[in-house]
Write a structure and sequence with these properties.
Layout lengths: L1 E2 L1 H22 L1 H4 L13 H21 L7 H9 L2 H11 L12 H15 L3 H29 L6 H14 L8 E2 H24 L3
Antiparallel strand pairs: 1-2
Length: 210
């Protein structure tokens, strides 16, 4: 049997919405986000920097792997993300943190980065959109909205990097209109991988506050 596009989107969106609601309620990133404008409280950004740096590279690889898609999501996503890691690096140095190029990401961040590369290298165009855009960017939108609101409230300035993502990640996650029907097997795999991505994101965000 085959599920039509509306059924696929409904079932996948239900998983993402449910998991994101749980993470926002339980994860230390949302429960323990720093409330003081002190550089030492933001050392965790080094993990975000390495993720951001790899994210730009993997989006480029996806665009190159699927050059003939009938939409501009892959090209525009790369073009809009390619400079973001450097923006974060400058912000970090500007508030007094060590250059993140002198650090390495923790294992939980490495695991998530690897999953994103897998979504680019071995998954279908449609599955890649569900993992990278619908799930990962959907979570990222919530993360940046939360972070930007607090950073602005506690007095940090020069928040362009954070502000941009509040708008961009909402746009990048809005790809459901491009998702088509799936066989039962494909939908089972999609649900499995989306849940796995949510779990990996949850563990990565929590690890930044350990």
């Amino acid at each position: 049997m085959t599920s039509n596009a509306a059924e696929v989107v409904e079932s996948i969106k239900e998983i993402i919405d449910s998991e994101l609601a749980r993470v926002k309620k339980e994860n230390p990133f949302f429960r323990q986000f720093p409330k003081e404008a002190k550089a030492e409280h933001f050392k965790w950004c080094r993990h975000l920097y390495h993720l951001s740096k790899h994210f730009g590279e993997l989006l480029k690889l996806r665009w190159e792997r699927f050059p003939d898609v009938g939409h501009d999501v892959f090209s525009t996503h790369y073009e809009e993300e390619k400079d973001h890691a450097e923006m974060l690096r400058k912000w970090m140095i500007g508030i007094g943190l060590e250059d993140p190029e002198r650090s390495l990401p923790n294992y939980e961040t490495e695991h998530f980065i690897s999953l994103q590369y897998r979504a680019v290298a071995s998954m279908s165009e449609q599955m890649s959109m569900l993992i990278i855009n619908s799930t990962s960017e959907g979570f990222a939108h919530a993360v940046y909205l939360h972070a930007y609101g607090i950073l602005k409230e506690i007095g940090f300035d020069n928040l362009e990097y954070w502000a941009i993502h509040c708008e961009a990640d909402e746009e990048h996650s809005d790809v459901y209109h491009l998702i088509g029907g799936m066989t039962d097997k494909e939908l089972r795999e999609a649900k499995h991988l989306v849940k796995y991505t949510c779990d990996t994101l949850d563990k990565m965000l929590a690890s930044w506050f350990e």
